[in-house]
Write a structure and sequence with these properties.
Layout: E1 4-6, E2 11-15, E3 25-31, E4 38-39, E5 44-49, E6 54-58, E7 63-68, E8 75-77, E9 81-86, H1 144-158, E10 182-183, H2 185-194, E11 209-210, H3 212-223, H4 234-238, E12 243-246, E13 249-251, H5 256-271, E14 274-282, H6 284-294, H7 306-320, E15 326-329, E16 334-337, E17 343-345, E18 347-349, E19 352-354, E20 357-358, H8 366-381, H9 387-390, E21 395-399, E22 418-422, E23 426-432, E24 435-449, H10 455-470, H11 474-477
Parallel strand pairs: 10-11, 17-21, 21-22
Antiparallel strand pairs: 1-2, 2-9, 3-5, 3-8, 4-7, 5-6, 7-9, 12-13, 14-24, 15-16, 17-20, 18-19, 22-24, 23-24
Helix pairs in contact: 1-2, 2-3, 7-8, 7-10
Amino acid sequence: MTTMTETSARFREFKMPDVGEGLTEAEILKWFVQPGDTVTDGQVVCEVETAKAAVELPIPFDGVVHELRFPEGTTVDVGQVIIAIDVAPGSGDAPAPAAAAPVQEPAAEPEAEAEPKGRTPVLVGYGVAESSTKRRPRKGASAAPEAAAVAAAVQAELNGHAAPAAPAAPAAAVPAQGGRPLAKPPVRKLAKDLGIDLATVVPTGKDGIITREDVHAAAAPAAAPAPAPAAVAPAVAEAPAVVSDSARETRIPVKGVRKAIAQAMVGSAFTAPHVTEFITVDVTRTMKLVAELKEDKDMAGVRVNPLLIIAKALLVAIKRNPEVNAAWDEANQEIVQKHYVNLGIAAATPRGLIVPNIKDAHDKTLPQLAAALGELVTTARDGKTSPAAMAGGTVTITNVGVFGVDTGTPILNSGESAILAVGAIKLQPWVHKGKVKPRQVTTLALSFDHRLVDGELGSKVLADVAAILEQPKRLITWA
């Protein structure tokens, strides 16, 4: 699709492109430029969010920004003009921008500012469907601040950041070089939506960087929300930037990744007949192997953890039972056997739950698999996972154990035949060699599409994974 038009020899327009897999719309998360700014070919001018990922859009020509057609927080159809560029500035008076397209003041400048990252569990949950989304009604400019504030509050909660209940009064902040407080662009956006001057916010982040918690702390005294009733989830009730109809309930718009997740889960749950089987296994030897691999020079530079061995165990189980790696073709009434494994790893990110996958994971050595897992997790945490990275998955692992959860009944990702949930690994009393001893134990749960996988096949796959984790040497004898 052509994404730019030429209105005259002087002005060019850039349209919302199809950023992946036939999507029909995208939400403008952030503008990095404003009218009057000079731009160059390849410069990123905005960030948009589809149902699958956040994507930065570069402008394909040089010039001066003449007009932004939509404010931040607006959902725009693919093919609509979003920005007009004066490619010959100074050649005459430019026409005034259209009055029907008000644009917010810039929430932040496109600076590469860092925010400290804590250790946040990211491996959990379900992914989005690999199909196009339905169109959503567009929102006017007046709704943009509230919608953006809702998104900021939800994103903060997904990151594990709840608004402080009783923050201290803000003191004078320490300005950054040049007098401009340091803050990441999303934090600046949050501050603007809440009406907070960053110059008055006390930074608590490393090197004087203002964090989301700092902004919420500055906003809390003014917001002074009433205590929420028990029926409302505490994390949502504490967030100061949500749309609330009354003191008794809170309403949050469902859009973007969260909307796609909901559609995918409903579609999967009511299309594929789910069956879930469970097994509890002694993984003491696996934990010893992990400790040994961490000291192995061949594994230097990569992260070694139990998930790595579990992923390898699942790949070996699939090799021994290849029929499980398939998809159901409803249109042709066929079972599509996959001769490759794109291993999905469920990840909780600031933008919602996604499932990027490791392409051709079955061909990777243990060090290669470890490197791929590390890259996948880092990219997901940074919010840079591309739509292509989430397409084409065949089987998925969701690690609910990082939250201390013992097990669950995961819902299949659309188009996949199985998903393995991994519970917390805990020291428990276990009968070992005829005696009760403390052993490292976990529970695995395998959900599968019963149209493709019968009980015997599903049981074999789960039993093989458990057997490998109990006796990791089977990674060699069964590989």
